[in-house]
Amino acid sequence: MTHVAPYRAGPAGVHGVLGQATTALAELGTMSGLEPLSVRDVTSLPASDLAGGGVLCLFTIGETPWSESQRSAIIDSLRTGRLGVVGVHSATDSCEDWTEYAEIVGARFDGHPWTTEFVAEVVDVSHPATAHLGKQWRWKDEVYVFRDLRPEATVLLRASPDLLDMTAPGARLPEWGLPLAWSFTEGLGRVFYSALGHFPHAWESPVFLRHIAGGLSWVLG
Length: 221
Hints:
Blueprint: H1 18-31, H2 47-51, E1 54-58, H3 68-79, E2 83-88, H4 101-105, E3 108-109, E4 114-122, E5 136-143, E6 146-147, E7 154-159, E8 178-186, E9 189-194, H5 200-203, H6 206-220
Parallel strand pairs: 1-2, 2-9
Antiparallel strand pairs: 3-6, 4-5, 4-7, 7-8, 8-9
């Protein structure tokens, strides 16, 4: 799902990697035994398809125009375990007008003060999304700040503020730090989110793709 929609206050940016990401995510879905369906416009997706279950992979931005029936199908299917969710990068920068959306992806985007190379701390070295990374992972990407992180979310990967320029415009440290990836359950359903994936090199990197594939594997159980 790569729908690009305006924010309430104006146009949203368009990520140049959406084509790459779509191809890569479809590949990972096929490898996991799924039948990928690439959707650029959510208004073309019947609510019955969402109610039927599977995995909803979100790389969206802006006020995604989900209908009420689509929203209900996503929430019900997730909570009953028929649907899993994989969120990527700007998926947390979507749907401000949908209160329950933060419960679906785990937090809300609140800025990206840094675009830099950094060393990520692997918090959970046993999770399928991070087990291949060792204790630290050097990476270049945007580093997001989040608000409303779900308290029960298991943080898998995070950036250290000690290695970032805390004088950069907008730089701040929320009480939960600077998580880069997490997982949690919503009812009987599973959700994985990674804030990474802004640059083309991510979708060309086997290491990054294993990160996303591991998250998908966990969502599938």
